[in-house]
């Protein structure tokens, strides 16, 4: 039959078409010195200033390099990165970084301090909208620039500043000026003009609009008590400086002293800044490439495409087969390229942990991204040496909805907290060698973690007896929201049953997909929520700043001005020991209200092939690839 | 015939426009969007980002922009992947197409003969055992069959891998996983369709007249008996080539199913709209093909 | 002509069904499964001791949601007839409780999709021409809609309704279990059924299209039968075969869909089980504890086998032509 013949030809051509490649085996890749890694998912771009996740960071760490670099073995020391040396003043507010004289981008163009200044200008630029811009708020003036506080730069020195500082500068988001978008400003009626101006705020008005207001101040809604003279003065200042670059007005504390010297002024003493510079937000980007883009300060993926991407790290982008793999190769222009022992790295976006483990045991990977709890025992049995369990900078905890009437009674919070048996969850469910969490900040460096939380069912019952639900535990109706991840579900099930056992209450579990869950939790539409937090840098503040009133990650409804005052005080303290003490105080103050229930401190569990050398434990699992080598 | 096809294509275009419009609004009613994140953007940055995707405008204006760009052949950029939607589809569809076609072939090669044989030998051991196997095939979900195949065949047969994409035979296991369940459905449906025809009067008459069994089957029974199977194959094929998240995830294939699920879960509306539109085209085409085939088998349908 | 013959269609069918050993056996198997899933848990629940520890140690029918981490993966024993799962919960009672949900979902969703799919497909096929084109293009459109988006939107809507409905039903004094079924499970069944009728509609439509021009239909038409009469009394009964087969085929899909929706917040929520949930949890322990996958799979497959053989038997029994053999 004709059809059959066609079908057969089809199959045959398929086989022939694909038949050039042989089986990827780790032995072969090891000989080629190419590291093959499981990497969770397809990265959402490779622009270090735009991304926000571990997956992207894993690739970007190979491509780019910050000022300082991890030491190959000692986590308390730093090695030279893009900077050959650095120094600071006594209280760690002024830092000077000396770049390598022979530092180059992968296309051979010298890497200079101007690249850094440009990079920080770009990531902080308000029109760029980088999610992680706050990682640079350590720098003097960075926050004001990022938040587009043009009014502050222009008007702060005026004598009337105190009166006028609360004017409508950044616009009123309740007003929607979209419907006027297509008409020219001059064609709008006065009423529409005012509406439009109010919606935008003084900082965003064009020269045309400013001039119109100068002629007719009623085209803008001024708050009461601002005299016409003051209004004119404000508008005049704006007109005078219109067209001026916000960056130059802002005077952000990053200066290129000369081509190879970078000076950074910080707003507060920050002795741990070398650690911060290892974060991808602090990496330089190639000024000579990006300034050629249509708009350097807008998101643009073209410069990160294979063939276009120019980087300064030990590796450069070789191939990006979308959704399939990303491959890096050695960057011969890297300043320390002689000491790079790998020839390349291949990242596979494997989302399914079971598939990843199967591929590892089928010799297709050097190291996995993760290891599902169900597979830990099995893998240990198979080959104990290949299973890695390392401390990981993160805390898993339950959020309590502090605004819920039921939780006004702190006894209930305490009863719930003391009846969670974290250790048995770790021993029987998670199995990854995690540590039962006794506070929100995991142990790190000199910080003494809180010891407030523990499993004590008798104490829990005592507290529960003091609540109004003591007589009829079933009358307490709580919803525990969690995600569609298996580990989150199992955790919720276990905790729910513990509360049933010890307190007799019946909590309802509600699963949803990750983003729906985030929406629910952010809207405080929950009773209890499972959750976790991974530190961005090894300092307690990464776990403490999130509980400030305005922080997007708070999501508990808990707030305290005193707490924020303590954090501010810590920020201004240059003595590390004293600073840690204040931070501990802050944590204790936060936990005293039992706004959350810490469950465990994370470990990273993964499978790892023995042929990889120089892969040391790392608290953030961001081992530098530079020091690794492969030996059969 | 040509006229019918033309009119069907025009109808298809209408379906696509409706589909795009409905998806456009459904996607915007989802409780979250692409900016929802664990580390949330502050209000100002959010505004900047929304403006970049025109999401600060009214729905109606967004719709007009989208339709405009659509007619210029621009499906816009994915918000999460930072890549043009058309590029994402162009990269992932070939994979899904190979898997789906191979899966469908496996399903047809196994399912239809099995169904015919079972119908001809109704209530015999052959019938029972074929149907038993088919039913087991249906009740073993892909998330069980896939790992079993990976462990059983992938780990032991030299030219097969447990997962991964790029080698010559990497399509085999995922296609089998996709195809077996469909084969089982097809076998059941074919059997039922054949039985139905075989009991029709005209077949009985033919039998009574002494026409040989082989002749009856080939000349008469197959034509009518396969109608339900073909009606089923149309949508089933569309389903297979649009990719399966589960199978792609188990075998680590860079297909489209993954993007479809992720686009939804991430609120990546442009990617979602693009994929839905593309799937819509496929569905319209495949159903058209199935209908043409039906008419060819049974001219009375015209 | 006596009275028995007057009831002939159904009584004849029953007699014929009884003769088909496979189908008859399947019927009893289904009755047994339904009995096990609905009666045992209720009886077991009524006589269960109040105290959780007491029930966990000394009572034959365990609480399906009571965990006991130290006792996880226990092998089958007189304590736990089928052993325990990864959290030390009794697999036997989880399987039975899960069966309630899965059977209910399977039944309700199937009925909904059957009614919608058959009537829609039949009408489209019967009317033919323009109507057929319009109706089938609507199906194409529905096919193309992103399932997951609809599910997410539904889960938001339903959770809103559930909250309001729950408080209303509580006022009316409904029992907790009943409320749970009404506000959580029924909307889920409807959602699955409503999203699952398209293929049925296509299958039925193509059948009606082809059979409406057959001689017997033409004959009936020339007798001046009304359209509904012609469609529902003459054409559809002759299509019962494919319809029954296709219906029984959709059930496993529906039951498995239920579990994937649970993870998105629609329907049965953890720690409650369903067969689909047990299967997907069991699949995670395929390597280490195959029992957790094999047991629910066997029960699931047996039920489907029985349903399908019963469906075949019913088809044969109801087929008027078969009796002429």
Walk me through what this model shows.
The complex is a heterotrimer of chains A (632), B (302) and C (325). Chain A is α+β, with helices and mostly antiparallel strands. In chain A, 33% of the residues lie in helices and 16% in strands. Chain A has 23 helices and 18 strands. Chain A has a 6-stranded mixed β-sheet. In chain A, α9 runs antiparallel to α10 (228-241), α16 (410-418) runs antiparallel to α18 (457-465) and α22 (561-571) runs antiparallel to α23. The two termini of chain A are 53 Å apart. Chain B is 75% helix and 0% strand. Chain B is built from 13 helices and no strands. Chain B has helices at residues 2-29, 43-52, 59-71, 85-120, 125-139, 142-154, 172-198, 201-208, 213-225, 227-241, 245-251, 256-266, 269-297. Chain C is mainly alpha-helical and 325 residues long. Chain C has a single domain (12-36, 90-317), classed as MetI-like (MetI-like fold, Orthogonal Bundle), CATH 1.10.3720.10. Chain C has helices at residues 3-6, 8-19, 21-46, 52-58, 91-127, 129-144, 147-171, 176-195, 198-211, 215-222, 227-235, 240-262, 275-284, 291-318. Chain C is globular. The interface between B and C is large, with 67 and 57 residues.
How can the largest sheet of chain B be summarized? Answer: none
C-alpha Rg of chain A (nearest Å): 28 Å
Please give the most extensive interface between any two protein chains, plus how many residues each contributes: B-C, 67 and 57 residues
- Arithmetic mean pLDDT of chain A: 90
Anisotropy-based shape of chain B? globular
Roughly what fraction of the amino acids of chain B lie in strands? under 5%
**Total number of beta strands of chain A:** 18
Strand content of chain A: 15-25%
What's the overall geometry of chain A?
globular
Structure summarized in a few sentences:
Chain A is an alpha+beta fold and 632 residues long. Chain A has 23 helices and 18 strands. In chain A, the strands form 5 sheets. Chain A has a 6-stranded mixed β-sheet with strand order 12-16-11-15-13-14. Chain A has a 4-stranded mixed β-sheet with strand order 1-10-9-8.
């Amino acid at each position: 039959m004709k059809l059959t013949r066609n079908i057969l030809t089809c199959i045959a051509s398929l086989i022939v078409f694909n038949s050039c490649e042989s089986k990827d085996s780790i032995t072969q890749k090891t000989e080629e010195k190419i590291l093959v890694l499981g990497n969770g998912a397809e990265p959402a771009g490779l622009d270090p200033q735009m991304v926000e996740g571990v997956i992207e960071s894993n690739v970007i760490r190979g491509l780019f390099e910050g000022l300082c670099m991890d030491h190959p073995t000692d986590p308390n020391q730093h090695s030279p990165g893009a900077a050959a040396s650095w120094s600071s003043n006594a209280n760690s507010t002024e830092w000077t970084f000396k770049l390598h004289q022979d530092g180059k981008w992968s296309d051979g163009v010298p890497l200079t301090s101007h690249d850094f200044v440009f990079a920080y200008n770009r990531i902080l630029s308000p029109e760029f909208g980088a999610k992680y811009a706050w990682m640079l708020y350590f720098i003097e003036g960075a926050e004001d620039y990022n938040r587009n506080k043009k009014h502050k730069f222009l008007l702060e020195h005026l004598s009337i500043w105190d009166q006028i500082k609360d004017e409508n500068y950044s616009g009123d988001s309740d007003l929607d000026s979209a419907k006027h978008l297509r008409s020219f400003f001059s064609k709008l009626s006065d009423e529409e003009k005012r509406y439009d101006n109010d919606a935008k705020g003084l900082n965003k008005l064009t020269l045309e609009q400013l001039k119109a207001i100068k002629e007719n101040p009623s085209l803008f809604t001024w708050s009461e008590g601002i005299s016409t003279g003051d209004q004119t003065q404000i508008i005049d200042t704006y007109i005078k400086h219109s067209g001026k670059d916000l960056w130059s007005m802002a005077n952000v504390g990053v200066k290129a002293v000369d081509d190879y010297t970078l000076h950074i002024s910080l707003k507060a003493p920050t002795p741990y800044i070398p650690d911060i510079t290892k974060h991808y937000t602090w990496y330089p980007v190639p000024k000579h490439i990006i300034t050629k883009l249509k708009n350097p300060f807008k998101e643009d993926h073209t410069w990160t495409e294979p063939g276009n991407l120019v980087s300064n790290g030990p590796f450069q982008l070789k191939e990006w087969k979308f959704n399939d793999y990303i491959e890096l190769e050695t960057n011969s222009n890297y300043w320390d390229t002689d000491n790079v022992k790998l020839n390349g790295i291949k990242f596979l976006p494997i989302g399914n942990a079971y598939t990843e483990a199967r591929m590892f045991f089928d010799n297709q990977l050097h190291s996995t991204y993760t290891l599902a709890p169900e597979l830990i025992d099995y893998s240990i049995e198979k080959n104990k040496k290949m299973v890695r369990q390392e401390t990981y900078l993160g805390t898993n905890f339950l959020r309590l909805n502090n605004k819920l009437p039921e939780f006004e009674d702190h006894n209930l919070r305490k009863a719930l907290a003391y009846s969670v048996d974290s250790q048995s969850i770790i021993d029987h469910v998670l199995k990854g060698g995690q540590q039962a969490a006794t506070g929100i900040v995991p142990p790190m460096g000199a910080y003494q973690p809180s010891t407030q939380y523990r499993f004590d069912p008798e104490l829990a019952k005592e507290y529960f007896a003091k609540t109004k639900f003591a007589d009829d535990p079933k009358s307490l109706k709580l919803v525990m929201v969690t995600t569609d991840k298996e580990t989150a579900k199992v955790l919720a099930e276990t905790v729910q049953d513990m509360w049933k056992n010890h307190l007799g209450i019946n909590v309802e579990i509600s699963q949803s997909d990750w983003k729906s869950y985030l929406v629910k939790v952010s809207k405080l539409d929950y009773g209890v929520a499972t959750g976790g937090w991974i530190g961005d840098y090894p300092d307690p503040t990464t776990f403490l700043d999130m509980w400030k009133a305005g922080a997007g990650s708070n999501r508990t409804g808990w707030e305290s001005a005193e707490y924020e005052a303590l954090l501010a005080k810590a920020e201004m303290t240059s003595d590390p020991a004293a600073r840690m003490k204040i931070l501990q105080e802050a944590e204790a103050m936060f936990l005293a209200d039992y706004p959350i229930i810490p469950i465990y401190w994370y470990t990273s569990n993964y499978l790892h092939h023995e042929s990889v050398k120089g892969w040391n434990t790392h608290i953030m699992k961001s081992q530098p690839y530079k020091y690794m080598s492969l030996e059969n | 015939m040509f006229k019918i096809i033309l009119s069907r294509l025009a109808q298809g275009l209408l379906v696509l426009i409706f589909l795009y419009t409905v998806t456009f609004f459904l996607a915007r009613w989802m409780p979250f969007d692409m900016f929802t994140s664990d580390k949330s953007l502050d209000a100002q940055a959010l505004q900047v980002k929304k403006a970049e995707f025109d999401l600060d405008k009214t729905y109606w204006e967004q719709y007009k922009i989208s339709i405009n760009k659509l007619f210029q052949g621009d499906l816009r950029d994915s918000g999460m992947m930072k890549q043009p939607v058309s590029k994402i589809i162009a990269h992932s569809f070939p994979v899904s197409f190979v898997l789906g076609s191979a899966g469908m072939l496996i399903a047809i090669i196994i399912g239809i003969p099995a169904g015919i044989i079972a119908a001809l030998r109704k209530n015999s051991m052959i019938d029972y055992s074929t149907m038993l196997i088919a039913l087991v095939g249906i009740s073993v979900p892909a998330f069980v069959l896939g790992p079993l195949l990976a462990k059983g065949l992938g780990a032991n047969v030299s030219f097969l891998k447990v997962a991964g994409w790029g080698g010559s035979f990497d399509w085999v296991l995922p296609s089998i996983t996709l195809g077996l369940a469909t084969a089982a459905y097809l076998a059941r449906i074919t059997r039922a369709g054949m039985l139905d025809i075989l009991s029709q009067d005209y077949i009985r008459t033919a039998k009574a007249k002494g026409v040989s069994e082989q002749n009856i089957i080939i000349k008469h029974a197959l034509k009518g008996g396969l109608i339900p199977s073909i009606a089923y194959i149309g949508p089933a094929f569309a389903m297979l080539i649009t990719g399966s998240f589960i199978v792609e995830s188990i075998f680590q294939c860079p297909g489209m199913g993954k993007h479809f699920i992720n686009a939804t879960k991430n609120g990546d509306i442009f990617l979602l709209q693009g994929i839905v539109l593309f799937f819509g085209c496929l569905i319209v085409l495949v159903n058209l093909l199935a209908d043409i085939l039906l008419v060819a088998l049974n001219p009375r349908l015209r | 002509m006596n009275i028995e013959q007057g009831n002939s269609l159904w009584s004849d069918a029953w007699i014929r069904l009884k003769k088909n050993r496979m189908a008859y056996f399947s019927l009893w198997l289904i009755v047994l499964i339904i009995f096990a899933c609905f009666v045992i848990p209720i009886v077991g629940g009524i006589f269960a001791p109040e105290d959780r520890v007491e029930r966990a140690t000394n009572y034959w029918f365990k609480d399906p949601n009571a965990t006991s981490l130290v006792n996880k993966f226990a092998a089958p024993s007189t304590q736990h007839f089928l052993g325990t799962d990864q959290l030390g919960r009794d697999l036997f009672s989880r399987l039975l409780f899960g069966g309630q949900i899965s059977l209910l979902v399977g039944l309700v969703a199937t009925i909904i999709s059957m009614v919608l799919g058959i009537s829609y497909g039949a009408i489209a096929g019967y009317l033919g021409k323009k109507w057929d084109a319009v109706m089938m293009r609507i199906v194409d459109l529905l096919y193309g809609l992103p399932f997951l988006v609809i599910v997410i939107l539904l889960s938001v809507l339903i959770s809103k309704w559930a909250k309001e409905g729950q408080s209303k039903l509580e006022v009316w004094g409904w029992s907790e279990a009943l409320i749970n079924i009404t506000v959580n499970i029924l909307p889920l069944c409807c959602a699955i059924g409503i999203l699952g009728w398209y293929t049925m509609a296509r299958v039925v439509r193509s059948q009606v299209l082809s059979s409406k021009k057959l001689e017997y239909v033409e004959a009936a038409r020339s007798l001046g039968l009304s359209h509904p009469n012609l469609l529902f009394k003459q054409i559809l009964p002759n299509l019962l075969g494919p319809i029954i087969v296709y219906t029984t085929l959709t059930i496993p899909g529906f039951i498995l869909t239920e579990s994937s929706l649970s993870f998105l917040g629609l329907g049965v929520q953890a720690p409650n089980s369903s067969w689909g949930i047990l299967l997907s949890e069991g699949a995670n322990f395929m390597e280490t504890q195959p029992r957790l996958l094999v047991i629910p799979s066997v029960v699931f497959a047996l039920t489907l086998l029985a349903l399908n053989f019963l469906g075949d038997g019913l088809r044969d029994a109801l087929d008027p032509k078969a009796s002429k053999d």
